[in-house]
C-alpha cells in the first residue's frame, strides 16, 4: 500500500552575481562550462527564490510544478526533469539500502516556486530558482549528508549553470572540471560570508525596452564564432581566477575591483566579438562605467585605491560592489546622475526607517561631499529621470535555508512559509482568489 503521509519541505535560495563570468558550454546537455567562474552570493533577506515540494500518493495527476503561481509542464523542460530525476534517484537508492526509510521516492510531487523580486526588475531568477528547487528536494528527501553541498551543486548545474554557485553562501567558485560526464564540474566555497561581511552590492536596474539575447543562446553563439572567447578561455580566465582567489582571501578590495571590472569588460568584448554581435550593455550602462571609472581614477590619485567595482551580466543592469563604508557616497553619486530611481532603503541610509522605499519623483540628490579632489563632475551628464529604474542595496549572504519541513503532523520550522496548501495546490493562487 502506498504511504498515506504527505511529506513537505520549503527552502529559500539566494541570487549570485559572478565577478569572473561563466560564458560558454563545452557540453550543452550536461551544462559543462568552458571556463571556471567565481561569484558573490547575495543576501536572501533581500533577493531570494522560495520553493516548496510536497510528495503524496494523493496527487493523482502525477508530478506538477507552478512558477510564480503559473503551472509549467515539467516534461517540456529537460532541465527541470534532470534536477528532479537526479534527486529522486539518490533517494531511491537510499531507500533500497535502508528499509527503515519512508518510501517516498515514487510518490508524485507538487512543486511551487516563487521569487520575491519581480522578474520585470530584469534580474536573472534561474540561478536562485534552480538552487531553491534542488535544496528543497534535498531537504524533502533528506539527501544530506549522504550528498555534500558540492554534490547538490552538480545537480543544480543541470538546471542552469550559474545555479550551482547559489548552493553556497559567501564567495563561490564553479570549477569547470575536465571529465566528459560532468562529475568534477561543481561549486566549492572559496570563503564564507563571515569572512568578508562588509562587502555590499548596489544593483542598478536600468531601463531597457528591448528583450536581449538570452544567455543560454548568446553564449553558444560566442562559442561558435568568437576568437576572442577562445583567447579568454585559454589565456585570460585562469590567471584571473588565481588573482580573484587572492583578492578574496586577503579582503583586498582594490584588487577585487580591478579584476571584477576587467572580467566584466572582457566578457562584454566577447559578446561584441560574436557574429552577429551581441550588445548587452546600453548607453546608461556605459555611462555608469564612465562614472565609476572616474570616481576610481580620482580616488587612486588621492589614496592609491579603487572604491567601487562594476559588473554586468547578460543585460544592461549594473551591479556595483563596494565596502559598506563607501556605499553612502556611491549611492549619492548614482542618485545624483540618475535621478528618480525607485530605491529600497534596506540599510536606512536616507533616514526614513529601515526597509523604507522611495518611489517615483524624488528631490534632486546633491553630489556627496568628500569626493576626491580631482573628481571631474562633468564626466557624464545628469540623465533623464528613471533611466536607472530601481536601486537595490544588499550585501554578501549565506547559502540556501530550510524554512519548513513536515511529514503530516511532524512540523519543523514555520508552516506559514509553505507555498503548497493542504490540498496540494499553490497557496498563492488561493490567496489571490480570496482577494
Ligand atoms: C552572464 O547560468 O543563465 O550571468 O547555464 O544556459 O542556464 P545557462 O546560463 P546562465 O548564464 C549566466 C551567464 C552570466 C555569467 C555568470 O553568471 O557567470
UniProtKB/TrEMBL annotation:
Location of the Diphosphomevalonate decarboxylase-like N-terminal domain: 13-187
Every Mvd1 C-terminal domain range: 201-402
Single GO cellular component term: cytosol
Record-level Gene Ontology MF annotations: ATP binding; diphosphomevalonate decarboxylase activity
Gene3D superfamilies in alphabetical order: 3.30.230.10, GHMP kinase, C-terminal domain
A biological process term (GO) from this entry: sterol biosynthetic process
Name of the featured protein: Diphosphomevalonate decarboxylase
Organism of origin: Acaromyces ingoldii
Amino acid at each position: 500500500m502506498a504511504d498515506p503521509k504527505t511529506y513537505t519541505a520549503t527552502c529559500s535560495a539566494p541570487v549570485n552575481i559572478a565577478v569572473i563570468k561563466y560564458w560558454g558550454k563545452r557540453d550543452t546537455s550536461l551544462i559543462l562550462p568552458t571556463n571556471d567562474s567565481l561569484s558573490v552570493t547575495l543576501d536572501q533577506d533581500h533577493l531570494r527564490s522560495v520553493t516548496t515540494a510536497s510528495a503524496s500518493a494523493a496527487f493523482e495527476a502525477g508530478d506538477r510544478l507552478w512558477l510564480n503561481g503559473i503551472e509549467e509542464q515539467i516534461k517540456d523542460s529537460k532541465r527541470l526533469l534532470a534536477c528532479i530525476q537526479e534527486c529522486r534517484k539518490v533517494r531511491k537508492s537510499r531507500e533500497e539500502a535502508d528499509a527503515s526509510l519512508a518510501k517516498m521516492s515514487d510518490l508524485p510531487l507538487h512543486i511551487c516556486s516563487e521569487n520575491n523580486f519581480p522578474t520585470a526588475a530584469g534580474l536573472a531568477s534561474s540561478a536562485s530558482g534552480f538552487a531553491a528547487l534542488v535544496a528543497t528536494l534535498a531537504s524533502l528527501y533528506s539527501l544530506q549528508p549522504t550528498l555534500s553541498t558540492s554534490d547538490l551543486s552538480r545537480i543544480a548545474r543541470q538546471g542552469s549553470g550559474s545555479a550551482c554557485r547559489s548552493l553556497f553562501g559567501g564567495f563561490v567558485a564553479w570549477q569547470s572540471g575536465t571529465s566528459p560526464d560532468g562529475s568534477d564540474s561543481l561549486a566549492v566555497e572559496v570563503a564564507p560570508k563571515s569572512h568578508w561581511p562588509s562587502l555590499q552590492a548596489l544593483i542598478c536596474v536600468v531601463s531597457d525596452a528591448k528583450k536581449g539575447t538570452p544567455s543560454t543562446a548568446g553564449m553558444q553563439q560566442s562559442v561558435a564564432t568568437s576568437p576572442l572567447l577562445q583567447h579568454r578561455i585559454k589565456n585570460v580566465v585562469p590567471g584571473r581566477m588565481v588573482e580573484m582567489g587572492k583578492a578574496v582571501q586577503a579582503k583586498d578590495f582594490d584588487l577585487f575591483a580591478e579584476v571584477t571590472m576587467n572580467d566584466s569588460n572582457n566578457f562584454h568584448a566577447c559578446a561584441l566579438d560574436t557574429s552577429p554581435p551581441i550588445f548587452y550593455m546600453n548607453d546608461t550602462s556605459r555611462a555608469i562605467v564612465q562614472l565609476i571609472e572616474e570616481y576610481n581614477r580620482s580616488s587612486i590619485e588621492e589614496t592609491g585605491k579603487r572604491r567601487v567595482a562594476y559588473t554586468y551580466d547578460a543585460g544592461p543592469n549594473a551591479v556595483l560592489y563596494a565596502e559598506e563604508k563607501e556605499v553612502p557616497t556611491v549611492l549619492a553619486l548614482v542618485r545624483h546622475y540618475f535621478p528618480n530611481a525607485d530605491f529600497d532603503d534596506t540599510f536606512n541610509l536616507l533616514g526614513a526607517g529601515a526597509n523604507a522605499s522611495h518611489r517615483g519623483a524624488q528631490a534632486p540628490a546633491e553630489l556627496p561631499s568628500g569626493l576626491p579632489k580631482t573628481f571631474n563632475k562633468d564626466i557624464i551628464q545628469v540623465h533623464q529621470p528613471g533611466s536607472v529604474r530601481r536601486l537595490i542595496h544588499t550585501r554578501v549572504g549565506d547559502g540556501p535555508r530550510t524554512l519548513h519541513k513536515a511529514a503530516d503532523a511532524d512540523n519543523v520550522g514555520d508552516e506559514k512559509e509553505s507555498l503548497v496548501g493542504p490540498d496540494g495546490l499553490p497557496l498563492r493562487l488561493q490567496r489571490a482568489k480570496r482577494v
